[in-house]
Amino acid sequence: MSSNSEIDALIDLMAKLPGLGPRSARRAVLHLIRKRALLLTPLSDAMQQVAATARECLNCGNVGTTDICDICNSEDRATGELCVVEDVADLWAMERAGVFKGRYHVLGGTLSALDGVGPDDLRIPRLRDRVTAENITEVILALNATVDGQTTAHYIADQLEGQVRLTSLAQGVPIGGELDYLDDGTITAALRARKEL
Amino acid sequence: MSSNSEIDALIDLMAKLPGLGPRSARRAVLHLIRKRALLLTPLSDAMQQVAATARECLNCGNVGTTDICDICNSEDRATGELCVVEDVADLWAMERAGVFKGRYHVLGGTLSALDGVGPDDLRIPRLRDRVTAENITEVILALNATVDGQTTAHYIADQLEGQVRLTSLAQGVPIGGELDYLDDGTITAALRARKEL
Ligand SMILES: [Zn+2]
Ligand SMILES: [Zn+2]
What we know:
Two copies of one chain form a homodimer.
Chain A: H1 5-14, H2 22-34, H3 36-53, E1 55-56, E2 63-64, H4 70-73, E3 81-85, H5 88-97, E4 103-106, H6 124-133, E5 138-141, H7 147-160, E6 165-168, H8 184-192, E7 195-196
Parallel strand pairs in A: 3-4, 3-5, 5-6
Antiparallel strand pairs in A: 1-2, 6-7
Helix pairs in contact in A: 1-2, 5-8
The structure holds zinc ion (2 copies).
One zinc ion binds at residues 57, 59-60, 62, 68-69, 71-72 of chain A.
């Protein structure tokens, strides 16, 4: 490819990133080599840092650098509200909107008969435990408006019925839409207009 | 963004890569964290390796890990033919086609009155030196079919007229097209059908 094995190895690894194909990986590597001091070395260092420190929060599944993440650790967030999301990218999207002040629970996916994903493959048992242990009064099901997302929301609602107030994001989430694609205002509107299940 | 400064720092750096915006950088970083052993650590190591070893060939401008690149060093490539390209990505595209057996000269851009890029800002003086020093008999101007690319080709042709055979890639390069976007067959056809200037 580049007639150089170290550079080819880097291109091959870059091409494995979501959103980068072989051609954009080659462009990115040439850009990195040109910006060695400004970008290549800092990026390598930052990756090493994250590789050494990143871990999943044992409580909620968020990604951070401590066993219990900053959000779970913050006393300011103990509102009794728990926002259930499919993955960490959705948690970040909620945080960017800046409107939710409670804590999160990251399922790590959705139920899927097709892919053989059952409740125990997700953080659903742990969610039940948290509702009791953390005196949760409201569970906001902020799952994607997809078939699997809504199936999962109904399953969780069935499990927790009668124990807590159950709500879901409502107005503003387009059919088939995914949280991480929405702008902050839409997320804010959807949270404010949340409805009882 | 992620409520964690190390992870945010990595996202910010990733977002500076060509082809990745903030959203795809976040997705890429989550993917890297999930694939720590398989992707994140190897990628960091490969970047460190390239940062420590990559350099521009002093002769042709290609990127490699030695002062003089493998192509310039190879006696098999001493055909008397020199292929002039705008940048290293174009050299790689020519090499993928596998049809050219001579050596390269990477200009490092094109002449541009608008951007104030003159002949001395590119490797044009060095091209003149190489034509003499390496007993070059043919210079193939494989520049992009853009206005700046063709202006640069004409400038170089003027400079070298009477000293060597001057050719350019011909059939197959679409108007406004860039080498790095073409398939190997098109590049091969264009090289085979090259015409006198
Ligand atoms: Zn947590
Ligand atoms: Zn070279």
